[in-house]
Amino acid sequence: MRPYIGSEIGELETVILHRPGTEMLRLTPENKDDLLFDDVLWLERAQEEHDQFAKVLTDHGAQVLYLRDLLSQTLEVPEARSYLVKEVLSACESGCGSDSSVQDWAERLSPTDLAEVLIAGITKEELLEQLPTVSSMTLAAMGDDDLLLSPLPNHLFTRDSSSWVYQGVSINAMQHPARRRESLSYRAIYRWHPLFAGQDFPLWCDGEASPGATMEGGDIQIIGNGAVMVGVSERTSSQGVEQLSAALFKGGVEQVIAVHMVKNRAQMHLDTIMTMVDHGTFTKYVGAGMMPTYTLRPNDDGSIHTTENPPEAMNDVIAQALGLDSISTLTTPQDLRAAAREQWNDGANTLAIAPGVVITYESNVNTNEYLTSKGVTVHPIPGSELGRGRGGPHCMSCPVSRKPLA
């Protein structure tokens, strides 16, 4: 497999997913907001829904790589294991991660068990069952069910922390503390996993945030023709866009379109309001309207030239980047209340598995019927549980390779 993503719509060949697991059982009404979920979920049903999502992908010829498997296999490499144990335990909320006995215990775990701890976290009681001698004042003051290492339930949304853009990958610097450890998993996987180790691909960003510079993959869309569209959103900053753009331009990308969005949770990423479904065709939430954009291009001296575009020029700017006279935006005709409900349930968050063929949540009936009426083939999946973290099929997928467009 040679990683390459040249568009949002080329036939999907390889994709990374994360099947929800024990980490979801760590969600409670008290901690769900800190962990960026709107509600606790029913794990078994969420797994069933995710399995149906994966089946649609494999039925259409895509190879599904599961994050948990990739991480377990990566942890078979001693250097990767040592790296992750050191980096993750240094973030241990109780301070016990600096205890050498805890580090030794983690190093002795099987790859599968260590991957489970890294994803699901661990409580005081669970640690003491395996390592009764460890002690610290902070640990002693904690309750048995208190988490020493927080879970990573947002690994479900594999799009955000890792984004393949043309021939390289961006490991993204996440906005919220609840998600920052996700980048460590990908840093290890792309460096040491046999599928990726030794492949000479550019690392556009390494997941380390500079002051004010954040980037999340839900804001990155590889629209093709040497162009990338990036949302400046609740989660992605202007500084993050400029840093990514500078790296992409060194790798041959010709322009980046920065779309300045309203900053709220319902529209946390660009892909919550707009996704590409076919050649020059996008689905778009009516409430997003036309948004101001900035066109970034490389100068000969390595600096970046920025052009400010008014909101009414948005579609023309995207069309120009694609080398087209115009683009088509598919906005479901419905009243604003219905539109807001479907947008909240990721109505615009489609995953294209081929040109004009998309996966959506089945609950967005109006949007699905409208897309079908416009010639788009829609494969609806259940998402009553998966959607509780405010993410749809586009959010839950990290494409690694797509076939080139004809």
UniProtKB/TrEMBL annotation:
The record's GO CC annotations read: cytoplasm
Keyword Cytoplasm: yes or no? yes
Show the segment(s) annotated as Disordered.
383-406
Which InterPro entries does this chain map to?
A: Arg_deiminase (IPR003876)
* Reactions catalysed, as given in the entry: L-arginine + H2O = L-citrulline + NH4(+)
Q: What is its EC number?
A: 3.5.3.6
Q: What is this protein called?
A: Arginine deiminase
Which PANTHER family does the record match to this protein? Answer: ARGININE DEIMINASE
- Give the enzyme's main class according to its UniProt record, as a single word: hydrolase
- What keyword terms does UniProt attach to this protein? Arginine metabolism, Cytoplasm, Hydrolase
What Pfam families does the database record attribute to this sequence?
Answer: ADI (PF02274)
Q: Which GO terms describe its molecular function?
A: arginine deiminase activity
Output the GO biological process annotations, alphabetical, semicolon-separated: L-arginine deiminase pathway
State the family it belongs to. Answer: Belongs to the arginine deiminase family.
Provide the protein's localization: Cytoplasm
Which domain of life does the UniProt lineage start with?
A: Bacteria
Task: Tell me the Gene3D superfamilies matching this sequence.
Answer: Arginine deiminase (1.10.3930.10), L-arginine/glycine Amidinotransferase, Chain A (3.75.10.10)
Q: In which pathway does it act?
A: Amino-acid degradation; L-arginine degradation via ADI pathway; carbamoyl phosphate from L-arginine: step 1/2
Q: Which residues form the active site?
A: 395 (amidino-cysteine intermediate)
What NCBIfam families does this protein map onto? PRK01388.1
